[in-house]
Design a protein that fits this description.
The complex is a heterodimer. In chain A, the strands form eight sheets. An eight-stranded mixed sheet of chain A has the order 18-17-19-20-26-25-24-22, with helices on both faces. Chain A contains 13 helices and 36 strands. By secondary structure, chain A is α/β, with parallel strands linked by helices. Chain A folds into five domains: about 100 residues, no CATH class; about 190 residues, 3-Layer(aba) Sandwich (Rossmann fold); about 100 residues, Immunoglobulins (Immunoglobulin-like, Sandwich), CATH 2.60.40; about 230 residues, Rossmann fold, CATH 3.40.50; about 70 residues, Immunoglobulin-like (Sandwich). By secondary structure, chain B is α/β, with parallel strands linked by helices. Chain B has two domains: about 35 residues, no CATH class; about 210 residues, 3-Layer(aba) Sandwich (Rossmann fold). Chain B is about 40% helix and about 20% strand. In chain B, helix 7 links the parallel strand 6 and strand 7. Chains A and B meet through strand 2 and helix 2 of A and strand 8, strand 9 and helix 9 of B.
């Protein structure tokens, strides 16, 4: 802890320019002097008695005049002072009187608290001030400790009576990389206070201290109406049972630069071609940044650097291209240094790099003749160079439906099933396990498909497995149908936007299965026919993705395989499905990441290494032949490595990044806090710590007690006093 | 209705005449004699009883009726013979001398904005009216004007033509100097040998003790004394609000005063002075009559007549 200075009390003015009106205080004196200069002359006969009166009362009259003048001058001075909003700064915590108190220390642990403009961060100050609260409390007071984070973290949940242990807990606190979930924290604190009241009736008073930078995004979150009402209800309940103290540790002029996004423009990274990265930087200050250096690090080694100009408060993009030389999991870090908040100056990406994409095509009607089978056109579209040797981008294996059970699907990034008539229950289980391990399925239908079997085994009918995103209805009558691309909204067909020559919307469909998307499912319709029926539907099921095409992959139901739109559509389907893994490898702080591993998973040991170097064993959850890893303790940003083995030996990398919504350090003012966040909720003290940076190490918290209301009461009293004195001294007598 | 006999050009009918006891109306008229006559006649018409006669018991002569005369003294026998109205007049038992002491010092010239006339003008009206009344009662009237010394002295006489001299002296009194009441009253007490009624018309802004000592001197010489204290309403009420430089009359200094602040103290001083005056008068059996220059002059005549009875 820091050395603590004695309590200091200082007077301050919030609205300093208003003090200029103090000149108006001279008005009564000026008016008095003017009136003395401006008089009339009059002869007077009864002068003897007037002089006698003056002689007798002169001194008192002068006193009365000066007293009235002083009251009037003071009245104006105090009125101006009230408008200027004076406040009393009190450094340190005065010992409150009364019975034993329960103090809930809520310390903001969101990453904005890591802002470090001097030798100490906001979080360091929060810890110091929390320590002061504990140290300056009376014997018998109890403490609980909660971190304002997302989700909130309760460090001491039941009131602790030993200040030493509480101080130790405070000392051990570390600022996280999370955002702040104020509604959840308030609800948690409310529960703690209610339980303390119930279980510790000797604690007669409850005080909740929020030590935070009052960041606007955290304190005024955009909530739904229902969530807002819930937050308000919890806040009101809390305010009824406890006094609320807000200690503002923010700085109004804090500047920050953040890398808000890093993405690959190619969903699938291979060694066959350059991978393009796009980096987005955002400035949260009022000054422009020129030639801001941005570095790209691959597996901890700097491989590229560029410079960008960022307008004040604006965004800029930087691009990198890199060709991986070796397949496997790689980690990318983009770095842009140069401000007082380092957490968001880094952004990480875990990227699995393949030599090629491996695809299995199951043909429901294989044929010896070219282009008569169900998947011939599809294979060609997947691998247009006619190079299935594995040297190209896509490596395709072709098999019949009877061979499905024999194949190790975990070797494939995606399985295409073309006009397969039906699936057995064991085949359905195989496909289900494949999806659970993160595999992807694309179904093309056709005249050989038995809709009833599909629905029963794959579409969740009769308690079967749910593998298909839509149920099969009837085959649409023979006709000429076109495709409605739905304004190319779906990422799978976004590449067609503005490319009319690809002819997607003009591709004719003669027959198709009408697909019925279940209500309340997460399935998305990618394309429809012009009659409005879904034609292509996709859904993320388990850890994989399933795409269902209502028509055939050969020319039996549609000439689409001959159409220029077919090849890019199939390619986009593949990259869309395979790219899903990238999303699973890159999550935000607080979000879990997971992976599945097939084969002899039983007895396999799995551990996860965090960015701080700590390694923790993680149990696998077994489902069938697959073991699933789920790791939820992503409290810090960086690269996490999951190690599977033995008997297998496999490492998978995951990137965890901060939510850069927290990067906007704009603080909420106390007035906004009162008006927008906690209207009509009393705050026991109004606190500001904006000038803490200028104070010495160990500076105490600064409480600001506004005095203007009290001053206005004095003004009111003086108004009455002036009227009374003026009447009493005979000035208002007729 | 009986028409009033016109004895000069300004005569008018009593029926149409305004209230000449009201100083506001009186101030519009010029000529002290006219004012005196109208005051007295206005007063007479108000009381419906002639003050001029009735104090004597022996018949002296007949006089033609004039409006306001007491009808009790109408000689119905003469009316029966001549068809004219004559009143019976009676011989006085005694002939009273009345001395009018008029203060013409500078302070008597004061007139506030709300007053219709200055204290001196008011005192002159009262004095002339009294003289008119006295002379019409066949009493003798004398006049003394004074400030820090005696300015004019008109010996008492019961001759009606004496009125002209009194009025003339009054009209010629300018009012410019300081007052020195006590010494003058002592002097006059010695001079006025014939016992009578001394009517003092003054604002009495002088040393009260000395003044009461001098008035006591009159009483010692067996004079009846009526102290007619003429005051401006502003001196009694001190109604001023604006900051004022009060310039003292009679060589007193000036003073810049916030009137609202000093009003209470001033009134305390002034009322104490009046109280002392009244106490002195009561002690020496002197009639004290306070007259505001914005009030009717009736009070002056009533006071005199009351003392005559």
């Amino acid at each position: 802890m820091f050395p603590l200075p004695p309590t200091i009390i200082a007077f301050g003015i919030a609205n300093l320019p208003m003090l200029g009106w103090l000149a108006a205080a001279g008005a009564p004196i000026l008016i008095h002097l003017l009136f003395r200069r401006k008089y009339r002359e009059m002869p007077w006969a009864a002068m003897e008695y007037l002089l006698a009166a003056l002689k007798r009362r002169g001194r008192r009259l002068r006193f009365e005049q000066w007293l009235l003048l002083a009251v009037r001058t003071l009245l104006i001075v105090l009125l101006v002072l009230a408008v200027a909003e004076p406040y009393l700064k009190q450094a340190g915590f005065a010992r409150t009187t009364g019975g034993r108190a329960h103090r809930v220390l809520v310390i903001d642990a969101s990453f904005s608290m890591a802002y470090k403009p001097t030798d100490r961060s906001r979080f360091d100050r929060a810890k110091q001030l929390a320590g002061r609260i504990v140290e300056e409390s009376r014997q018998g007071d109890a403490f609980t400790l909660v971190l304002l984070a997302s989700p909130p973290k309760v460090i001491i949940g039941t009131p602790a009576l030993e200040p030493g242990k509480v101080l130790e807990e405070i000392d051990n606190l570390r600022c996280g990389d999370t955002t702040a979930d104020l509604p959840a924290t308030v609800a948690t604190v409310r529960r703690i206070v209610e339980r303390a009241r119930r279980e510790n009736p000797g604690l007669g008073r409850h005080e909740v201290y929020f030590l935070s930078d009052l960041q606007r995004v955290a304190w005024d979150p955009k909530l739904s109406a229902a969530a807002k009402a819930e937050f308000r209800r919890h806040s009101e309940q809390l305010a009824k049972t406890a006094a609320l103290v807000v200690i503002d540790l923010g700085q109004a002029d804090a500047e920050n630069l953040a890398i808000t996004n890093v993405q690959t423009l190619d969903p699938v990274a291979t060694t066959a071609r350059d991978v393009r990265f796009e980096v987005t930087l955002k400035d949260f200050s009022r000054r422009a940044r020129t030639r801001q250096p941005v570095e790209l690090l691959l597996d901890g080694r700097r491989v590229a650097q560029t410079h960008v100009d960022i307008p004040p408060g604006g965004e800029a993009s930087a691009g990198f291209a890199y060709r991986f030389t070796a397949p496997g999991d790689h980690s990318i870090e983009v770095r842009a240094s140069g401000d007082a908040l380092h957490v968001d100056n880094h952004r990480f990406m875990a990227i699995p790099v393949r030599q090629s994409l491996r695809v299995l095509c199951i043909d429901g009607h294989p044929s010896g003749e070219p282009f008569l089978g169900a998947s011939d056109y599809l294979v060609l579209a997947l691998c247009p160079q006619d190079d299935r040797s594995g040297q190209g981008l896509v490596e395709v294996d072709l098999a019949t439906e009877s061979a499905l059970l024999e194949r190790d699907l975990s070797r494939y990034d995606c399985v295409f099933l073309c006009d397969v008539a039906q699936f057995t229950a064991s085949e359905a289980r195989l496909l289900d396990a494949y999806l659970r391990s993160g595999g992807n399925l694309v179904f093309f239908l056709g005249e050989g498909v038995l809709a009833e079997r599909y629905n029963r085994e794959l579409a969740g009918a009769a308690e079967g497995l749910r593998i298909l995103p839509a149920r099969l209805d009837q085959v649409a009558p023979q006709g000429v149908y076109s495709i409605n691309p739905l304004e190319y909204r779906h990422p799978m067909v976004r590449a067609f936007r503005g490319r009319a020559k690809a002819g997607l919307s003009k591709t004719p469909i003669f027959r198709y299965y009408k697909l019925v998307v279940p209500k309340d499912s997460n399935a998305e319709v990618v394309l429809r026919t012009t009659t409005g029926d879904p034609l292509v539907v996709e859904e993320r099921i388990h850890r994989g993705r399933v795409v269902m095409v209502g028509t055939s992959a050969n020319t039996s139901w549609t000439p689409m395989p001959l159409w220029p739109s077919f090849v890019p559509l199939v390619q986009e389907m593949l990259t869309f499905c395979a790219g899903g893994e990238l999303a699973q490898r890159n999550v935000r702080v607080g979000e879990p990441f997971g992976a599945s591993i097939s084969g002899s998973a039983a007895g396999m040991s799995v551990s996860v290494q965090s960015p701080d170097g700590r390694t923790r064993p993680v149990p696998l959850r077994f489902e069938g032949d697959y073991g699933t890893l789920l790791f939820a303790e992503t409290t810090a940003g960086g690269i996490y490595t999951a190690r599977f083995g033995p008997p297998a030996s496999e490492n998978r990398r995951f990137a965890v990044n901060v939510d850069t919504a927290e990067s906007d350090l704009a603080p909420l003012t106390l007035d906004e806090l009162r008006a927008d966040v906690w209207p009509d909720i009393p705050l026991l003290h109004e606190v500001t710590g904006q000038d803490l940076d200028t104070e010495t190490a160990g500076a105490p918290i600064v409480r600001s007690r506004r005095l203007h209301v009290g001053v206005l009461y004095v003004v009111l009293g003086l108004l009455f006093a002036e009227s009374y004195l003026a009447w009493r001294f005979g000035h208002h007598a007729p | 209705m009986i028409a009033a006999a016109a004895d000069d050009k300004e005569a008018t009918t009593l029926e149409d005449s305004p209230d000449y006891l009201d100083p506001t109306i009186l101030a519009r008229l010029k000529g002290l004699r006219l004012r005196a006559r109208l005051i007295v006649e206005g007063y007479v018409s108000g009381v419906h009883r002639s003050p001029f006669h009735g104090f004597s018991i022996e018949f002296a002569e007949h006089r033609e009726y004039s409006p306001g005369d007491d009808l009790r003294y109408l000689d119905w026998k003469v009316f029966g013979r001549t068809d004219k109205y004559y009143l019976k007049q009676f011989e006085e038992e005694t002939n009273v001398a009345c001395y009018l002491l008029l203060d013409t010092s500078e302070s008597m010239r004061y007139r506030s904005a709300s007053a219709p006339m200055s204290k001196l003008e008011y005192a002159k009206c009262v004095g002339a009216a009294l003289a008119y009344l006295i002379l019409h009662q066949q009493d003798s009237a004398g006049l003394v004007t004074f400030d820090n010394e005696i300015r004019a002295l008109v010996r008492d006489s019961s001759n009606p033509s004496h009125m002209e001299q009194i009025v003339h002296v009054m009209e010629e009194s300018p009012g410019e100097r300081k007052t020195a009441t006590a010494a003058i009253f002592h002097d006059l007490a010695e001079r006025l040998k014939k016992r009578g009624i001394v009517v003092v018309l003054s604002d009495l802004f002088d040393d009260v003790d000395a003044m009461m000592g001098a008035l006591k001197h009159f009483r010692h010489r067996r004079h009846e004394v009526i102290l007619m204290h003429v005051l401006d309403p502003a001196e009694l009420d001190f109604p001023f609000r604006q900051t004022t430089m009060f310039q003292g009359l009679e060589q007193l200094p000036e003073a810049l005063v916030e009137p609202r602040a000093i009003r209470k103290a001033y009134l305390e001083e002034f009322n104490a002075y009046v109280r002392r005056l009244k106490q002195g008068c009561r002690m020496h059996r002197i009639d004290y009559v306070q007259m505001r220059t914005d009030q009717s002059l009736e009070v002056a005549l009533s006071s005199y007549l009351a003392s005559r009875r």
